[in-house]
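job 3f2a | input accepted
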Amino acid sequence: MGHCPRIADCAFLKEEIYRNMPRLLQRFQNTYCQNRFTDCACYKIASVLGDQFVPSLMLPSQIEWAQQILKDNTPALTTP
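job 3f2a | predicted structure (80 res):
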């Protein structure tokens, strides 16, 4: 699939707390950033709503949280 197109702006990768956990960071990068980025919770939110809607401590695997954020904020995009 290739690398995530949002890698330079990724809130997860910029979060200081995760930079202090290199093994965790590498695991998520290998799984999501370099392979299945469309499955990433952060990518799902950022690509639809924008980076400002991605919680700073959200992990790429927190899909249910991402789905709730999308559900809660999508109507705002469709109303005039």
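job 3f2a | The chain has a mean pLDDT of 89.
job 3f2a | closed
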